[in-house]
Amino acid sequence: ASPNPVSAATVAGGGGIGAVFVDGEKAERGQLNALVNALARVPAIVIARFRSASDPSLKPKLDEGLLGATLANASSLKETLRFLRKVYLPPLGRRSVGPSSVTRYLGAIKDFVGRNNVVFLGGVTIGDAAGVSKVESIVKARARGLRFLEVDSAGIARSLGVAEGALEHAAAVAKVENA
Fold first, then answer.
1. In the sheet where 45-50 sits, what is the strand order?
2. Burial class for 162, CB neighbours closer than 10 Å (0-12, 13-18, 19+)
3. How far apart are CA 176 and CA 179, in angstroms?
4. Which residues, 6+ apart, have CB-to-CB distance to 155 below 8 Å?
5. Nearby residues of 178 by Cβ (< 8 Å), 6 or more positions away
6. What DSSP line would sit under the chain, residue for residue?
7. CA 106, CA 100: separation in Å to the nearest integer?
8. Which residue, among 87, 10, 15, has the nearest Cα to 41 in the 3D structure?
9. Which of 61, 70, 103, 116 could form a disulfide with 123 if both were Cys (CB 3.0 to 4.6 A apart)?
10. Residue closest to 93 by CA, chosen among 108, 75, 113
11. What angle do helix axes 77-87 and 129-138 make, rounded to 10 degrees?
12. Inter-residue contact 132 to 172 (CB < 8 Å)
């Protein structure tokens, strides 16, 4: 279920929250735009998680006003770079600017294109052993717009088959945090 935009704005505004992470793939058309608009006065940004750069809804959902996107369970530099090319505008990426039923920026395209890559946050979530083992390679994408790493601590523990806080888990999380 998607968060209620008004409730999310109330929570974000009350606690000094700077970002709200949502499952971008499950959001229906227009829901992300409603959430972005509800959080506009807080200010907090909406960052959506996607499982693949191949998701056909990626561009339309970015057009709803998202200021960040993260690739869930990134496991390679190649996959990360492909995702970043899809979320950033030229010259950093290959995302196009085109019509969308919820796009507000078409009247100010020059301004949007000029500032979007500066403010947009492209990231990856490391949430399994494959991502942990490749994190040193994945962070090389910083030169192509990787701006943050999100650590899915519970996911890492599950993929390692150990309890959260176990020595192996703590070492894996520290490896990601220190990358």
1. 19-23, 45-50, 68-71, 121-126, 146-151
2. middle
3. 5
4. 73, 127, 128
5. none
6. -PPPHHHHHHHHHHHT--EEEEETTTSPTTHHHHHHHHHTTTT-EEEEEES-TT-TTHHHHHTTT-SEEEETT---HHHHHHHHHHHSPTTT--------TT--GGGGHHHHHHHHHHH-EEEEEE-SHHHHHHHHHHGGGGGGTEEEEEE-HHHHHHHHTS-TTSHHHHHHHHHHHT-
7. 9
8. 10
9. 70
10. 113
11. 70
12. yes
The burial of 13, by beta-carbon neighbours within 10 Å (0-12 exposed, 13-18 middle, 19 or more buried), is given as middle
> Tokens representing 48?
């959506």
For 122, the token pair is: 């492209």
Q: What six digits make up the tokens of 142?
A: 């910083």
Contacts of 16 (CB under 8 A, 6+ apart): none
